[in-house]
Amino acid sequence: MARLKVQNKNTKAHHEAKKRRQREAMRRLRESRRQDPEKYEEDKRKERERYYRRKEAGQIKTIDQMSEREKRNQGKSGGIEVKNTILERKMQRSSSLNYKKTHHLPLQSRKN
């Protein structure tokens, strides 16, 4: 009888596969909850409560609490995120696989 090769659970590939499965499961769960209006409203209410709790605990800063440097950095990182999103959408819209392979648009660095 042939033995199957068992993947070591401590490998990076195993951890990546496990994370990928968890992300997919969470995506399916959120999608199913989004389909039910009552559950969706409940999720939004819980998220709002969580946000206010974190804000009161000081884990989230509002704009008026930020220094000028923090405001600048926040604006910079937001601009980079917008550029990255636009580039990703352009790549998704292009239907040709050759275009995707040969004309890859580099994403902006998130650390600047």
Automatic annotation (TrEMBL):
Biased composition (Basic residues): 11-22, 100-112
Biased composition regions of type Basic and acidic residues, renumbered to the chain: 23-58
Annotated region described as Disordered, given as residue ranges: 1-112
Protein name: Uncharacterized protein
